[in-house]
Amino acid sequence: MSLCNSQRSNFRSHLERNIRLQTRPPAPARPSTTMNSSPHGSRASIDILEELQLIAAQNLEKLDINKYYEVVCELGKGTYGKVDLVIHKIRGTKMALKFLRKKTTKLKSFLREYSISLYLSPCPFIINMYGIAFETDEYYIFAQEYALAGDLFDIIPPQVGLSETVAKRCVHQVAIALDYLHCKKLVHRDIKPENILIFDKECRKVKLSDFGMTRRAGSPVKRVSGTIPYTAPELCDTTRQEGFCVDYSTDVWAFGVLLFCMLTGNFPWEKAMPNDTFYEEFVRWQRRRTGTVPSQWRRFTDEGLRMFRRLLSIEQERRCSVKEVFSYFNQCWMLDTENGNSSSLASSAPPLDIRSSSSEEDVLVDRLKQQSLSPACVVVKGSIMMDTHYSSMSTNSSSSSTGSYERVNRENNERGRILVATPIEICV
Ligand SMILES: Nc1ncnc2c1ncn2[C@@H]1O[C@H](COP(=O)(O)OP(=O)(O)OP(=O)(O)O)[C@@H](O)[C@H]1O
């Protein structure tokens, strides 16, 4: 669909009317208790998400996948479906198609994940999108850029961890992505290595993905009935009967656990709950009831421990913002690190202020309006993808680790997802 300017403004006001008719006005996002609110991601960015969803809904076509794509292999399986590596038959482009089973995914949830992914994709550290969404009888599907080397989980050596240099390189990019998201007043809510896609084993290029759980900060969500090691203690608190307000601080906690996993190849605990010995030990030290550093934390330097104290503050209100991690990059985090000094990394690191402006957002919406979401149309009119120059081919072996460090999966109960922890054995 290509529109001239006057048609476009008519279309826009038609859309605005529709949005007003079809959706209740979004609840204003509550200011975070832990972060300064940013001038970015205000009311305008909330409206743009509604608009993107509406456009996607209007353009969703039923397609025969085999007509447009050649399926190469399965890249991964999630709670709601699968991700396949495909090649576009006419264009020859490799893409990752995410399939969400209609049986377990509502159209609304699909549109939300697709629109949020699209909205965040201008960030260079967030997985890119092709502006393609369609459906088959069984699935809702959208297309993403293909991450050549799979996900971060596969390259963390169990019980060993990544070198500090590689971990810092990766953490830096993930922190920028997370800060970008938070500045847009969104909370990821599923930070874990499986959702960090990598393009090379040295983590020179990594991107955050999977926005299926992402919600606006301040929105109410129901309690979930399970936990994974990345789940923040306030969400594990079974004595709380009521639901929660989505808050940035839960991402910061998961980010802290992620750092521990990357640097050690272990989980710090099975769950952040009082009956977990490793967690209890950590809480005693964190609350300064003991001066003894818990055994699994003794491999970190004082500076490293200071950073973990800030990221993994038990009280939600005292947890730092994700940005604070940048102030620790010139320090060594590990005691026995082979090359802990990362000052060269810090100086060559990408600039932090890469938030998209509102004019970028307008361009995004305009480009989306001008193209159908169908693959056929993308061939003719180009895509909104910014970075498609990947040619080497790799299959993601998705080898599952055994021992202390295993993939953890969520299970679905549609609106409130259940979190399930795979049994883990923590080696210290
Ligand atoms: N663009 C991509 N390129 C390469 N591999 C990918 C891509 N997207 C996803 N994968 C692989 O597929 C796996 C599952 O993808 P994803 O996390 O998006 O699905 P999900 O159903 O939301 O999973 P979960 O239930 O664990 O959150 C990822 O962990 C990764 O290994």
UniProtKB/TrEMBL annotation:
<feature type="compositionally biased region" description="Low complexity">
    <location>
        <begin position="391"/>
        <end position="406"/>
    </location>
</feature>
<feature type="compositionally biased region" description="Polar residues">
    <location>
        <begin position="1"/>
        <end position="12"/>
    </location>
</feature>
<protein>
    <recommendedName>
        <fullName>Serine/threonine-protein kinase SBK1</fullName>
        <ecNumber>2.7.11.1</ecNumber>
    </recommendedName>
</protein>
<keyword id="KW-0808">Transferase</keyword>
<dbReference type="InterPro" id="IPR000719">
    <property type="entry name" value="Prot_kinase_dom"/>
</dbReference>
<keyword id="KW-0547">Nucleotide-binding</keyword>
<keyword id="KW-0067">ATP-binding</keyword>
<dbReference type="GO" id="GO:0005737">
    <property type="term" value="C:cytoplasm"/>
</dbReference>
<keyword id="KW-0963">Cytoplasm</keyword>
<comment type="similarity">
    <text>Belongs to the protein kinase superfamily. Ser/Thr protein kinase family.</text>
</comment>
<dbReference type="Pfam" id="PF00069">
    <property type="entry name" value="Pkinase"/>
</dbReference>
<dbReference type="InterPro" id="IPR008271">
    <property type="entry name" value="Ser/Thr_kinase_AS"/>
</dbReference>
<keyword id="KW-0723">Serine/threonine-protein kinase</keyword>
<dbReference type="GO" id="GO:0004674">
    <property type="term" value="F:protein serine/threonine kinase activity"/>
</dbReference>
<dbReference type="InterPro" id="IPR011009">
    <property type="entry name" value="Kinase-like_dom_sf"/>
</dbReference>
<keyword id="KW-0418">Kinase</keyword>
<feature type="domain" description="Protein kinase">
    <location>
        <begin position="69"/>
        <end position="334"/>
    </location>
</feature>
<dbReference type="GO" id="GO:0005524">
    <property type="term" value="F:ATP binding"/>
</dbReference>
<feature type="region of interest" description="Disordered">
    <location>
        <begin position="391"/>
        <end position="411"/>
    </location>
</feature>
<feature type="region of interest" description="Disordered">
    <location>
        <begin position="1"/>
        <end position="42"/>
    </location>
</feature>
<dbReference type="InterPro" id="IPR016234">
    <property type="entry name" value="Ser/Thr_kinase_Sbk1"/>
</dbReference>
